[in-house]
């Protein structure tokens, strides 16, 4: 299991921790939806890493306070998801988790 975990860790692209992303208000609707879709894929891979490292039973609240690379990536990814979902709901209304076609497709902010 140790080599499998090492292989998973080296193959996982840490994409969220320590990176700057554009403000969600500057993204078009399709870009918002695409990034939310990518987040789902990364979330699944990250969960596989937690399981492989024997931490699959941790609650999300337990992961947030830790400072290991997996937990930092998890926290950064969840923060980005919250930013994107906040923008989606600002454009489309409460209860939406992606933008419907034709709703809120123009950016709400310029930078």
Structure description:
This protein is an all-alpha fold. It has four helices and no strands. The protein has helices at 2-11, 29-52, 60-64, 69-92. Helix 2 packs antiparallel against helix 4 (69-92). The longest helix is centred in the middle third of the chain and has 24 residues, at 29-52. The protein is elongated. The model has no long low-confidence stretch (mean pLDDT 83).
Please report the number of helical segments. 4
Which spans have pLDDT < 50 for at least 5 consecutive residues?
none
Tertiary shape? elongated
The N- to C-terminal Cα distance equals 46 Å
What is the share of helical residues? Answer: 55-70%
Q: Class by helix and strand content?
A: mainly alpha
Strand content range: under 5%
Mean pLDDT: 83
**Helix-strand pattern, N to C?**
HHHH
According to DSSP, the number of beta strands is 0
Radius of gyration: 16 Å
Instruction: Report the sheet with the most strands, covering strand number, pairing sense and barrel closure.
Output: none
């Amino acid at each position: 299991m140790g080599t499998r975990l090492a292989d998973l860790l080296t193959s996982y692209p840490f994409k969220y921790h320590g990176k700057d992303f554009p403000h969600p208000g500057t993204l078009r609707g399709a870009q918002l939806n695409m990034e939310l879709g990518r987040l789902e894929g990364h979330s699944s891979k990250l969960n596989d890493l937690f399981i492989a490292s024997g931490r699959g039973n941790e609650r999300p609240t337990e992961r947030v306070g830790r400072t290991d690379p997996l937990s930092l990536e998890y926290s950064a990814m969840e923060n980005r998801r919250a930013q994107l979902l906040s923008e989606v709901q600002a454009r489309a209304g409460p209860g939406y988790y992606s933008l419907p076609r034709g709703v809120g497709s123009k950016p709400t902010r310029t930078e």
